[in-house]
Amino acid sequence: MNKQYALAIHGGAGTILREMLTPTLEKQYKDALTLALQKGQEVLKRGGTAVEAVAAAVVVTEDSPLFNAGRGAVFSYEGKHELEASIMCGKTLEAGAVANVRTVKNPVLLSKKILENPDFVYLSGDGADKYAALNGLELVDQKYFYTEERYLQWQEVRDTNRAFLDHNVHIKNAEAKAGDYKFGTAGAVALDQYGNIAAATSTGGLTNKKYGRLGDSSVIGSGTYANNNSCAVSCTGYGEFFLRSVVAYDIAALIEYKGLSLKEAANRVVKDKLVKMGGEGGIIAIDAQGNIELCFNSEGMYRGYVRSADGKPNVFIYE
Amino acid sequence: MNKQYALAIHGGAGTILREMLTPTLEKQYKDALTLALQKGQEVLKRGGTAVEAVAAAVVVTEDSPLFNAGRGAVFSYEGKHELEASIMCGKTLEAGAVANVRTVKNPVLLSKKILENPDFVYLSGDGADKYAALNGLELVDQKYFYTEERYLQWQEVRDTNRAFLDHNVHIKNAEAKAGDYKFGTAGAVALDQYGNIAAATSTGGLTNKKYGRLGDSSVIGSGTYANNNSCAVSCTGYGEFFLRSVVAYDIAALIEYKGLSLKEAANRVVKDKLVKMGGEGGIIAIDAQGNIELCFNSEGMYRGYVRSADGKPNVFIYE
Asked: For residue range A257-288, what is the model confidence (pLDDT) as tens digits?
């Protein structure tokens, strides 16, 4: 054990402007981010693994109604909640991912359960819910995911989305208004005392999403990736662009194959390549040396980190 | 237009031994591969795009009962057929993917329809079937996917898989026996006369798959990737390993970031990295210069290619 550990988290990126958050709400976000860091830190401090730590941190964001993951998951077009998550271990390259689960309280824990089973990496839909039940994970009714704020957001976009089928212009305005919650996602990356890294991501997807739409959060390589040889990455942003750009693995490849530093690789992908495509969002990344990057091209990203050096959680929202 | 075009296809990799195929069956496979090449070639010859060509080639394999894609899709544990597919354009990096569709005759055409819609990249489950219906794609009953051979394969594995729950040993033997059809998948990569490349992949997944299990065939970056700057890749193999290795994008990254040739990059990933993990399978790849690689670490891979230079289809099965 090298005794050094570090952890970073995000709670989504997007049009998060100072004037949009009341001081009370800002404090709630910062408290929740701090708690997530502390829960992950507890695991790392007592010698737990990076996989356990990222799961513990993401569980806090899933249990909070503030983030678009778990409890606070947005409404789909059909008024349902369909959740996605994934997790990866940088030491073994084992991975677990779930798409479109509806009854699992903590999709990140289902991902972790899948990671631990060598037979599977990626489970989806009712089958994934069934696997969760068989493995004793906590199940909830869809009502558990009801929050008034998400419901009101959905109503606003839902109305204009009906119009979308007839009038393209209307939805464009609604999407701009909905910008804040559009990129909600939570994630964590960690370095444990054994020198291993891991990443995890969880989301409720897009408000008013249709047709079983999936983003990057359940996709190993795009939303989540971890490899001790390069870095661990968790993404949040406009999923379609992150899928097409294979964002998480691209950052790892720039480090491993092109020799870029973690900072250079993150900046290249988030502030150059994604910007040129129009892909708004951000990433958090960590490497086996304990370097941390919190990088985004949007107005804000709920984020934070903690290191063993001082053990003090640091949380941020705006640029 | 540079007038040069090229196309490569695969119909799955695995334990394909000469003694397993009768001369009649071998001829059927070779005829089907040749037809797929010809259909893709027709598109390229008349100035169609690489995206159109890979779709046309994969449709032939989907319509044939010989390949584990479309018509010949294997049975899931519940006796259903759940199909996955994806497609990507190397010029625009536009992509389309579908997971767990059940009523779409040609999942690759649904992927192409999604690629053409900037709002989506990845659709899944009933919602994806619904999107197919709304977009006028040909729908079929699940019975369409019934083939006696696949049914018998399922029955064999199904029985031992029941035993799997109690006796781990049995299923291991059954899996070895089922090796041939385990990695069935079809795919194509193409270079068109405009100098653009594309890739597409389609599969029925694993025989007896459970819990909404997904492999790499619907995952952009793992099963399918295309970028004019590096290469276009379609994979077939043990999906879990291909997901964890982000195989398709890894080959592209080795070319773009490390300066490897297409051959070097394909060999590094398929014959070195995947072998070390235990990931059996293969890939086909093409670059914008018209180089083609058909690379696998299993006993055989149904495969072929055609180039504008002589216009003659070449098909192979064994090493």
From this structure: 999 999 999 999 999 999 999 999 999 999 99
Q: Determine, yes or no, domain membership for A120.
A: no
Closest CB from A94, A124, A245 relative to B214: A124
Region label for A125, one of left (φ > 0), alpha (ψ between -120 and 50) or beta (otherwise): left
CATH code: domain of residue B285: 3.60.20.30
Is the ipTM, as predicted for this complex, more than 0.85? Answer: yes
Active-site positions of A? 185
Mean pLDDT of B156-173: 46
Contacts of B273 (CB under 8 A, 6+ apart): B245, B250
pTM of the model: 0.94
Minimum Cα–Cα distance from A128: chain B residue: B211
Domain with B286 in it: 6-75+84-92+147-318
Within a domain: B121 = no
Rounded to 10 degrees, what is the CA torsion of B142, B145, B148, B152?
-80
Shortest alpha-carbon distance between residue A226 and chain B (Å): 10
User: Residue A157 domain-assigned?
Assistant: yes
Residue of B nearest to A88 (CA): B244
* Nearest Cβ partner for B220 among A95, A244, A250: A244
Structural domains counted in chain A: 1
CA distance B221 to chain A (A): 6
Q: pLDDT tens for residues B177-199?
A: 444 445 679 999 999 999 999 99
B187 in a structural domain: yes
Q: Which residues have C-beta within 8 Å of that of residue A286, sequence separation ≥ 6?
A: A6, A7, A8, A189, A190, A191, A197, A231, A232, A262, A292, A293
